[in-house]
């Protein structure tokens, strides 16, 4: 099995969106450079951010998200983001009406079921878990191996928390990656067990 990585862009004070679910400048780093990050050419980052992000993206087999993120993005029109093979959506509801059953999206109830499905699909590739409520639930369940953060230079003051509603202490190792990009600081921590 591949490792499980919780990942997301985050404000300096720990939020992945403001009170209105808007990311504001959190993703500015994805359009602040000259190096195309994906084939669309829309995402352009600094060489430093490319060297950090692209190899990681290439290792992701599956991303786990919550239904809220799925609905906000309109299910990425049935195409997993960033060239990822599959998306597992944690939800208590079925797929949306008219959803193409051949799209590589899998709707499951609960984080344990989501992780089982994601690991089955990912094989030895990375299972990425989106930061936020679902990511916090996966962390609280002891299923996260690594926490990656792309820290943007902004303070929100309030909003949607990176770790969701986690209320218990979770120890992380010292950061094993600290990389300064353009408009971002890339950090990576192993989860201590």
Describe the structure.
- The protein is globular, with a radius of gyration of 16 Å.
- The two termini are 18 Å apart.
- The protein is α/β, with parallel strands linked by helices and 193 residues long.
Largest sheet: spatial strand order: 7-6-5-8-1-9-12-11
**Beta-strand proportion:** 25-35%
Shape label: globular
- Computed structural class: alpha/beta
CATH level 1 class label: Alpha Beta
Ranges with pLDDT <50 over ≥5 residues?
none
SSE order: EEEEHEHEEHEHEEEE
CATH architecture: 3-Layer(aba) Sandwich
**Head-to-tail CA distance between termini:** 18 Å
With helices defined by DSSP (H or I, 4 residues minimum), what is the helix count? 4
Binned, the helix content reads 10-25%
Q: How many discrete structural domains? A: 1
What's the total number of strands?
Answer: 12
Classify the fold: give the CATH topology. Answer: Dihydrofolate Reductase, subunit A
What is the alpha-carbon Rg in Å?
A: 16 Å
| CATH evolutionary superfamily | Dihydrofolate Reductase, subunit A
The largest sheet, given as strand count, sense and whether it forms a barrel, is: 8 strands, mixed
Task: Summarize model confidence as the mean pLDDT.
Answer: 95
């Amino acid at each position: 099995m591949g490792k499980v990585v919780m990942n997301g862009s985050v404000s300096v004070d720990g939020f992945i969106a403001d009170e209105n679910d808007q990311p504001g400048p959190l993703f500015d780093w994805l359009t602040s450079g000259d190096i195309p990050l994906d084939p669309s050419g829309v995402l352009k980052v600094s060489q430093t951010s490319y060297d950090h992000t692209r190899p990681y993206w290439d290792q992701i087999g599956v991303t786990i998200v919550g239904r809220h993120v799925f609905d906000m993005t309109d299910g990425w029109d049935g195409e997993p983001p960033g060239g990822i093979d599959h998306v597992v959506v944690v939800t208590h509801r079925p797929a949306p009406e008219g959803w193409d059953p051949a799209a590589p999206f899998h709707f499951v109830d609960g984080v344990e079921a989501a992780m089982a499905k994601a690991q089955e699909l990912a094989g030895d590739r990375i299972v990425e878990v989106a930061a936020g409520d679902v990511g916090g639930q996966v962390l609280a369940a002891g299923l996260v191996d690594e926490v990656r953060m792309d820290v943007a230079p902004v303070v929100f003051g309030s909003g949607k928390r990176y770790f969701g509603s986690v209320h218990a202490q979770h120890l992380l190792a010292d950061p094993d990656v600290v990389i300064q990009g353009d408009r971002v600081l890339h950090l990576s921590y192993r989860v201590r067990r």
